[in-house]
Structures are given as structure tokens and as C-alpha cells.
Amino acid sequence: MIQLRAVFCLMALLLPFSPAMAQYNFDPNNADEQGRGIKYFGSAKDERGALIAGASILVAHEYVMVTDATGRYRGNLDPLYTGDRTAVGCSKPGYAFVKVTKREGPVNAVKQTVQADCVLRKIK
Amino acid sequence: MTRTALCALVIAALAAGASLALAGSVTPSEATLEKLRQSGDVAGQRRHVWEQLAAITAPRANRPAFQAWHGEGELFSDAPSGRPGLAGFSRTGILDTQSPDVPMLTYTLYNDAAYNHITRNHLNQAATLERLRKTASANPAISKNRDVPAFPAQSVVLKTVWWPVARDGLTALPVWDPARNPAGKKGNPYTSWKRVVAVDPRAMPNQSAAVAIDFAGSNYPKARRVGLSAFDHVSVDGAMARAMMADPSSRKAALIALGRPLAAGDHLVLVAANVAAREIPDWIWSAFWWHDQPEQGPYAADRPASVTGPWRNYLMQAAFDAQKPLAAGKTPHITFNPWLEGRFPDGGHGGGIVSNCMACHHRASYPAVPFLPVTRGKPDLRGDAAYASDQLRTSFLWGLAMHARPKSITNTKPDSR
Prior knowledge:
heterodimer; A: 3-stranded antiparallel β-sheet; 7 strands; B: alpha+beta; disordered C terminus
């Protein structure tokens, strides 16, 4: 029983550091949550899961967001650019494209979101 | 007075007054240029604008003349560097909005005539513009609008666009081919262009002309290798790199091109420039951009022998008028720069690829209004907020309207024109 309690305690301690907590959460008090548009956000990683700074995220080849020092990006796009009909790519000089995984947020959410995570491979 | 002294006086007077003395020809009078405007003589207009290019790029101390001009930082930055030209890059007060745009590294330069007029009249200060809104002379054509003092005819303003090139290895550079980039509803930013070249600072004559390179998520297996000598280019030093990377748009442009911030030892190649020359009251407008096949197509036409060296690799469009000569379908005249205006979406009057510099810059006024969507032809004097009562016309210059100091709350984005 003591062991089980210890496991629960450990889980409770680790929960805030889980990958899910690193994801985007809607916060209406954030200045960049105001106004219309779809929030695009996500990350760029290499094949081993290391985050990549300075990668370009291309939405429909018309808009570019760049990952910050932590390998993440975010930005608001026109509501026309819904996740289901918008191509998302990514690139960085010296890297080859591997894949983009795209997920749309809940349809009935206050703020429409698209999470697009990119994987690149370092060219040797 | 001796003949030598007289000669020196003449030379000094010419140097002071003729900032845009055209290379190899006599500077046309305003009346001659107005005739060119009225007639819609495209070839004549183009010949004049090519001569403008020859004049502003003529070598002075081993660099193009315009690199000795005053940078926008001298007028609008809180921390001007004191260096002329692009080397003096300084831009402050621009917030990082994380906007998902397609940015470029741009810098606007002002010749002595334009710079002196702005500083003498304090036109780079918002307080002055506020005062002029109430006290300046009335604009003769736009109801309840006033004008900043008229610029001298020698004034030239040059907006330059630079592409970062890594000191080692290859850097992809998008190339705009008109046939492969038709006008579309969503605009035509450089990330959507269909072809790239590979810029190689160490290109050797015996190297393969075609190389494979990636750009913006696409692979180009046979990109043409191009050396630095094909461009007007500058080497980046530490101070330039620091100043440019402190500017969010320039930093983002470097990340897109290089995948890393710009550093000392990298290069910047001039990919485009827009020129506004106040030779006629509405200014003469031209757009230049680099191409690897610069002898082909209508944008290469009429280039004279006075345009030399890498400047022969630039294509051009010119506008003396917002409407004349009419474009296909009897629509207003088109003059745009693929780099600067191609990206603008169609907001109801066509996108950037069918825009005209003059139609847009005619709207430049203080307090600044959004310069989008693209408008064409005659101004909408009744419905457009740019012509509302009490607007101060800033002589076609968006820079004054958008960046006068101290910056207003709306002036948080870099000038895109």
C-alpha cells in the first residue's frame, strides 16, 4: 500500500512536466489570443526528438513562422487557413524534410487551433 | 577669377545640385518628363529610368553611389549608427509580433536632397506632422488635406531588399519568373516562387553549373549555381550583423535563408530595389529585381550601355503615372516589384502583381492608414480613410507617415513598402 501511494505521489509530481503540459493551452488573457484567426502552433524536432531552433514552418507556402530558441512557434492566421485544407511544410538549410503531423483543435473551442509538429533530418 | 577656380566652382555646383545627374546624358527637364508621362511613351520612360539606375549605382570609392546615402536609421531610429548606407543599418521600435508573414531584409536610403529636406523641416518627427496637419498649405486636389513642404526635385528615395548568403556553402535564392507565377488571389510571396538559384560565394568557373538544393520545403535538383559577382553585394561585419539581427523581420529573413542568424563574414546580395525620384511632382517610380536571365523579356527592354557590371542583371518596371499607359484590358498601368509587392493578396482590386507603386504611395498620409489592400487607378477620395479630412499628405512617402518619431502605437510593424 505504501508502495502504491509512493507511485501516485511520484506521478502527481511528474504530471506538470509531462509532454502534454508543454502543449498549447488557450489563455484569453494573452494578447496574441485576441482577435480573429486560427492559432497555429507546434514544434520542429530532429529524428531523435531534439528541438530545432530557426526552422521555417510554411503554411500554404504563403506564410512563414520560425521556431524560437526552444524549437517552438506560434502565430495567428486568417480563418480561411483551416487545418483540413491547408498544407503545412517545414524546412531549414542543412536539414531534409521528414514529416509534419497536423492536428486540429476542437471545432467548438473558443479559439480555433491547429497544432503542426515538424520532423527534419540533419543532412550529413 | 582664374579658369581653374571657375572650373572648381562649376564642379562644386554640379555636385551639390545634381544628385541625380544622369550618367552619360543631360538630365531632362521636368517639362520633358511630364511629356513622357502624358504621352505614355513606355520606351522613353524606361530609358530614363535605366539612366537613373546608372546614376545612383555609379561607383564612388569602390561602392555604388547610393551606399553613401543616409539610411532610414538616421531619420527614424532611436540609436542611429552614424554609418552611411546599408552598413549603418539601424531600426528600433519594431515589436516582434510573431506575425506569420514572409519577411525580407529591407533598408531605405535617402540621398542628400531628400534627407536634408526631411531633417530641415523635421518631417521625421510626429509632433511636426501633427502641427502641419493644422497649419500647412492646403492640398489643391484633396478636400481638407494639407501637404508637407514640397521636396526638391533632386530628391531620391531608394528601398533596398537584401538576401543573406552564407560565407561558406550554397544558399538558395528564389527567382521570380513571370510565366510561372501568375497573379492569384492569395498573393505571390517568394516562398511560393517556382524556381531557385544556388548562390555560391566560392563559385569557380570549372564547377558544375547545376546543383541540388532545398528551399522552403521543396527540393530543386538542378538549381543554377551563381557567384557573388552576379549581384551587387556587401560583406557583413559584426556591427551590421548585430544591428540586423536585433530587427525581428531581418532576423526572420535570415533564419529562412540560412537557418541561423546572420553573422560576420556572411554576405548580403541585393535582390530588389524600388526607386522614387522627385523629378516630377508625383515622383517617378521604378522597381528593379535580380534575375539569372536578365536579357530576356519585356522587363529587360531598353537597357542602355551605361548600366554596367552586375547592374545589367536586374530587370525593371517603371511608372510615371498611376493609370497611363493602360495595361491589358484597358486597366490602369501596372508597376510592381515581385519581392516587395508580389506577396500582396487580392483585396478586391487585384493583388500585388497587378499593382502600381504610385496608386499605393498616393495614399501615404499622416496619421498613417493601412497600405493594404492594393488599390488601382484613380484614388477613392470619398471612401478611403487615407483621404479623410485633416490628413496630412506626406509627398507619397509612407516612411514619414509610418515611422515619424516618437512612433505611435500603430507603428509597430516594419514598413512593407
